[in-house]
Amino acid sequence: MVQEVILVDSENRQIGTMEKLEAHRLGLLHRAFSIFVFNAKGETLLQKRAQTKYHSSGLWSNTCCSHPIPNAAQLETVNDRLKVEMGFDCELDLLFKFEYRTDFLNGLIEHELDYVYVGKSDETPIPNPDEVSEYKWISWRDLINSIDRNPEEYTYWLYEIMKRDEIHDYVLVFL
Prior knowledge:
alpha+beta, 3-stranded antiparallel sheet, 4-stranded mixed sheet
């Protein structure tokens, strides 16, 4: 099944759609989303990307990430993707969005307008093995320290999100 992404301009206006892998080959700006789920202990749920992923395989990342589906409500897509990857759902709120670009060693380019969502849940994940090889709950402080010590073990977008004040401000209020 061909998955398309939503292409946007620098003002976040939709300018078309394109097959996902082609958009990543060309480095065209498109919408994406990243989800952070926190439990009652204040820990965040991380996933290790499956080895079969077309980039960033085997790296630790936020709870879930993907691309909105063209002509579908974005929040519905976000919730559905959390169920597909991690086997549960919860109420999610948009925290912020930001643009980033990075080149991967395999020639692909991530150029995304990433919508960052947060939610709270104590559900036990049931990860989809096609998407996720492992998961863990981790304290925010331990995540920061681990990324500082071993940045090569984490996805680029997680590293970029962790540089943003908005996510740290949310965690401070939440905890």
